[in-house]
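Review box. Two proteins, two foldings.
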Amino acid sequence: RERSKATTMEEALLQFAPMQSSVDEGFWHRLSSLKLNKLGIDDSPIHIFGFYAPCSHSQVSNHLTVLAESLPSELSEASLIPEPSRGNRNRCSVPGILYNTNTVESFHALDKHSLLKKEAAKIWDDIISGKAVEDCSLLSRFLVISFADLKKWTFNYWFAFPALMLNPPATVVNLKPASNWFSVAEAESLSAACNEWRSSKSTADVPFFLVTIDPNSRATVRLLKDWEACQSNAHKILFGFYDPCHLPNNPGWPLRNFLALISARWNLNSVQFFCYRENRGFADMRFSLVGEALITVPQGWKDTVPNAVGWELNKGRKVPRCISLAQSMDPTRLAISAADLNLKLMRWRALPSLNLNALSSMKCLLLGAGTLGCQVARMLMAWGVRKITLVDNGRVAMSNPLRQSLYTLDDCLNGGESKATAAVESLKRIFPAVEAEGIVMAIPMPGHPVNNQEQDSVLHDCRRLHDLIDAHDSVFLLTDTRESRWLPTLLCANTNKITITAALGFDSFLVMRHGAGPLSHAHNFSAETTNSSPADRLGCYFCNDVVAPTDSTSNRTLDQQCTVTRPGLAPIASALAVELLIGILHHPQGIFAEADINNSATGATEKPLGILPHQIRGSLSQFSQMTLLGYSSSSCTACSHTVVSEYRNQGMEFILQAINHPTYLEDLTGLTELMKSATLLSLDWDKENDEEDDDCLEI
């Protein structure tokens, strides 16, 4: 009879329903952001939290869920353990550890047996030390390994819920619904006590507890640390836990480590356990289970960590899971993430000082939407600039799409779309998140006089250009003619805006940054009160001229009217122009930065982005490039103290004078006198040469 009883107990092994995982999409978004913006290539373990609750549906088990808040925020240290919110009855927090690898090969190469054993050892240490009695959530520690492919938005992952194995395994006697185990009075009292426990903010999310029932059928729910106090007056003692499982004949996974704690801490061989389950948020004794577990452990078993199991199965197989969020993500959001990926990867190793916030908030004004303007706009977006305004008054011609990358044949039909409008529409098709605006307007130019009927329209354009420059942080001068760059150069010097010029010849180019305005009070030079030394600041596009800009389009043949350049020139110059802006933004002195040349002592080794030149001149015929330095001229027709001051004093009247009178700027800046002096000097030199020639003839 004893042998038959033993055989029956062996057959009734206590079998547990495995814990199941659920990952909220927000968890992957937070992990991606954390990886890109903070962790980089650091693959140290990350402390996380998961959440579960008692089963509340007779057909569906609850899962352990990880959410965005399971991970530390970007503002906190990843090595710190995040603090979960407490008191939420539907979120019992459980500590976990995340190993996120840098490559998929590293993910597959992880020693899963060792990782599981390591977490199981933590659980065992918490049991032996008594920490698990004080904080019972430690019994449900979990482990996640993952690899995040941030280019494809796919995530490989595998959960493990370490469970200590009793040897020999525990057996179960008389497992049945709680309503059949207790008397009616006991069941009612226990339901009321559990509901009160679950309603209290201090205990609602405590997943392991003691249940005592006195001789009067009154049930009480207590913390595990009250075990000693329960010994004297309790008629019945049960060990309760929040059971996420819905199965009628199997308790949930958390009971495994709970039995190990009971056996190790209190040396019990027979344990009555209570699988607490709910229906619509209240205790359900018909759904909950009660059983008796029989535990037999060998002597000295506490001296070593028990073996552990717990890797989650994927459709019955021991393989990781993979999820792709690319299909579920909004296309615009996916485009933003993909666009930022390369920039954020730069910060991992190559350029940790890259200021993405400065780039994304930068407002760039592009004057000209032709060959240069199209290329510059695309390069700016590649660097993370999101606010771009293009100004042009031309229309897309049939000859444009091959060289101007934002236009297609459709933009040329029916007389051609406005370049500014078509360029903006193209930018938004390329990257929907760009904040682009197209302005159709002409830029007033010196040497192109206006009559009285046109004056109001020209002044309106001048004021509009002034407002546009004032509203932006940087300005690119990308127009076809020299004179069209004069007014923007003056307005930028007046407002001290970052200004980049790119200009093309047939096989040569110039890319340069303009110096700070002459009336700037920043950096290490003070405002000019007189014509100061040219060494005070860097020059502008016009500082080397000895004549004012004039009409360069009239009386020109077709090849002189069009910008005839080698096709490869514009992309090179455009890229350099944008790189020059990025260098200014990341230089501690910004627009006031001194100029470097390629053989200067301060080289790229000292600056993350290398040198910051003033001018870059290149030649495709020689396949050469050089950096040059030019200081501002006190006689400059665009950025000198005299011109900027006169503009401030006279405003639009000054601009009209410059437009209508070809010599006005030369007279104002002293270039006229300079040319006269040069002519007289040349005459004197010629006279001296003639006298010398006469002497020679006489000899």
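Next protein.
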Amino acid sequence: MQVSSLNEVKIYSLSAGRSLPEWLSDRKKRALQKKDVDIRRRIELIQDFEMPTISTKIKVSRDGQYIMAVGTYKPRIRCFDTYQLSQKFERCLDSEVVTFEILSDDYSKIVFLQCDRFVEFHSQHGHYYRTRIPKFGRDFSYHYPSCDLYFVAASSEVYRLNLEQGRFLNSLQTDASENSVCDINPTHFLFAAGTAEGKVECWDPRTRNRVGLLDCALSSVTADTEIDGLPSISALKFNGALNMAVGTSTGQVLLYDLRSSNPLIIKDHQYGLPIKSIQFQHQLDLIISADSRIIKMWNKDTGKIFTSMEPEHDINDVCLYPNSGMLMTANEAPKMNIYYMPVLGPAPKWCSFLDNLTEELEENPESTVYDDYKFVTRKDLENLGLAHLIGSSLLRAYMHGFFMDIRLYHKAKMMANPFAYEEYRREKIRQKIEETRAQRVQLKKLPKVNKELALKLIEEEEDQQATRKRKQKNLPSLLKDDRFKVMFENPDFQVDEQSEEFRLLNPLVSKISEKRKKKLKILEEKEKEAQEQEEEPEGKPSDAESSESSDDEKGWVEEVRKQRKLLRQEEKVKRQERFKEDQQTLLKPQFFEIKEGEEFRSFKDSAKKQKLMKKTLGDRLKLEEKLGTLSVSDTTVGSKQATFKLKKSEQQKKQQEAEKQHRQERKTLRRSAGHLKSKRGRGQRFH
């Protein structure tokens, strides 16, 4: 929990601190809480009070039990039960929500205005009905006496949807090109709509006639304000029967009395950002206005600043919990912030323990400013050899380190590093030498790998800079690009200039490389001289570069021919070396094992097969007809029919012979058995 104070107003940030990921098990969460002090000391007022990426709107139900927030991604609404201090339900939607309204006292009736012109109704069980408005909606308000929903959109009309009859009514025609925000007075139900031209039109819902027009754009422009364009209305809020606050897109808040066309107070946020939200705090007569960067609280009578808050992330919406000092914000971050200010009011009933907690903190205040003390971190203590003092009275824990007596710090530093002054003196001398060296001509530092390629890139950059116009932007350098850093560091990327591809693709590289090699030698010599001598003697003339002109196309052709001749000669030499190696090697016979059941055939069979494969299909068919393995016959339809006879292997022949012998043996057995039966029958008849 972070505590900040401005104008002697203490603000307790209840959502400060790191949040644990959802996928962690309870056991790991408990282990982290034991190890990490920050996690142990954090206050999680409502469990998982956050969105996946960002939250756009946040509201509290009229009974104060439910907090509802919408956000992305994916578009969803989350409802949190304050009595259980946890999430009650979550519903995903088809598109992002522009704004929403809770019609009932609890979460049973909700209306969503979505960015794709759809209006979605939810009941207690979930999605109930969906309809569409003609233009893209910006805001809407609910008129309780007539059960009408008033929608302002990117058009001059204000659409009315009656929830009792379930149909659209005649729309209100305004003078604006586009309406941005709207609100209905809770006392006399006056409808007000803010326009893109910086005006507020007030309508009576009973007669459907316009009863007033306020030009807020002209009133917001004063002698001190600087604006680039016409300010439009970005926020609107009624307070009681007569007061109305208007926020503009240029960062001004105007407080009006409905009986006058001139504003009572004009408050400028000084940031030039559109006002996102306006809330009224009745106990102290404060107005809470917020843009995307800051939340300001100021007195509505005098305009004096009461306090302000600047969260880390941009603000999308602000919600003041009724009759309490709690403030909630929807931000451009997953976590939704919760602030508690005891000055504004007591803590809500469901978190009454906050009052006791803040009272204890105020009774035992921790001083944050120390005289004659030095702030050190844990690493500094380890370097000084004072890590064993952690937990003693000599060190006082504060934030991410400790406060210790400045005298003890100086003594420990002198003992740990007695030559600190000498090191400081050497460092100063080194800095002065570097300053003098910077005035001289600086040498080009080339990488260890692909030096010639780096030199080529440097020359091309210098040529481009000389020919490029002033207005054109500087192109990025390959040497400074992180994507190509490995090419000049890893020796595996070294360019092989002796390879065939390199020599054929770069025929002129030999002549150009000679120039670069000379430059490289010059640069290496200069680097050696700079390393050997601390100070370079002045007056040395720089080596003049050779001004040899590059060859024309004839020279290029000759160079290509030379490279090809050289490559052919190298290939001949390699062939001769291979031939000599083959002659020297002795060939030894190799033996192969034949599988069981197979017989060795001569290598002539494979040669015959290869010859057959070279012949055409017709020749092969004729040959197979002669051998008897193929028979071709004409059919009745007119086509030809070919039947093949596969050659039988020796194993198949042996199996067929064994089967024939087995059949013959069975026949003989059957015949002998038949003769015996006939003899026995004759003997019985004789007896």
